[in-house]
Amino acid sequence: MAFTRATGKHRKPSRAVRVSANAAGIATLAATGVVAGLAAPAMAASPDETHRPTEDTGLTQAVVIGEDTAGRIGEQAQVQTSAAAENTAVHEAEAAAKQEAADVKKAADEAKRKAEAERKEQERAAREQERKRLNTFVSPIAGSYVSTSYKASSGLWSSGSHTGIDMHAATGTSIQAVGAGTIVEAGWGGAYGNNVVIKHNDGTYTQYGHLSSIDVSVGQSVTAGQQIGLSGATGNVTGPHLHFEARTGATYGTDIDPVAYLSEHGVNL
After folding, report:
1. Could you give the CA distance from residue 62 to residue 153 in angstroms, rounded to a whole number?
2. Is the CB of residue 166 less than 8 Å from the CB of residue 211?
3. Phi, psi of 245, deg, nearest 5
């Protein structure tokens, strides 16, 4: 018995309609990755269409193309994400390296500045110490006292008055330079007996007479407190003691008050 059907009920769509539908499906897949037509229920084939060739709707091709496109997009996204992370890591590493270099330079500059400051302070302290050493004065005999004052009158002195001071000292007592200077005389000095004359750094002179022995020589440099000889009773004396003079020049007659001279240099007898 032959089946009858309404004209056009299962008529094949025109080629233009099929192409438009396929294109729309591909576009939808490319945009969303899902073909809207997949959600539609399958149409049962009529008995007389069972053996007809399967119609190519383009849906399978669109699914394959959509999956491939989505995969490529995912790969590109991963590559871009990795590249961005790598760039960020590189920038961070460069920034860290620059900061570390800046910190190292800052530390080096600070260490250099500190070392320079310490060097200058050491030089200043050394100069100050040297200045004090050169300008320091002491008593010619530690712990002694004046037994005969300056300008005392007596026939014992050819000038009629004492040109220096006498300081109490037993024979063999250590006699020391009152300040730094250079020995300009060391030996016999007539009425002074064995004597030493020192020219000091400020241009003044000091003389030490009646020594029992001399420990320095002409041209030698001495410092304040350095032993230059031992006390005695040589020359024009009545007993052991030290004759000490302060002068503005190297020769006899340029004497000044020894007590005042030492006091001006911080030494009180």
Report:
1. 140
2. no
3. -125, 150
Q: What is the pTM of this model?
A: 0.56
Tell me whether residue 243 is exposed, middle or buried, using C-beta atoms within 10 angstroms of its C-beta: 0 to 12, 13 to 18, 19 or more: buried
Query: DSSP letters along the chain, please?
Result: ------TTTTPPPPHHHHHHHHHHHHHHHHHHS--GGGGSPPPPPPGGGTTSPPP--SHHHHHHHHHHHHHHHHHHHHHHHHHHHHHHHHHHHHHHHHHHHHHHHHHHHHHHHHHHHHHHHHHHHHHHHHHHHHH----SSTT--EEE-TT-B-TTSTTSB-SSEEEE--TT-EEE-SSSEEEEEEEE-GGG-EEEEEEETTS-EEEEEEEEEE---TT-EE-TT-EEEEEB--SS-SSSEEEEEEESSSSTT-EE-HHHHHHHTT---
How many other C-beta atoms can be found within 10 angstroms of the C-beta atom of residue 252? 16
In angstroms, the first-to-last Cα distance of the chain is 160
- Angle, CA of 217, 215 and 198, to the nearest 5°: 55
pLDDT digits (tens, 9 = 90+) for 172-228: 999 999 999 999 999 999 999 999 999 999 999 999 999 999 999 999 999 999 999
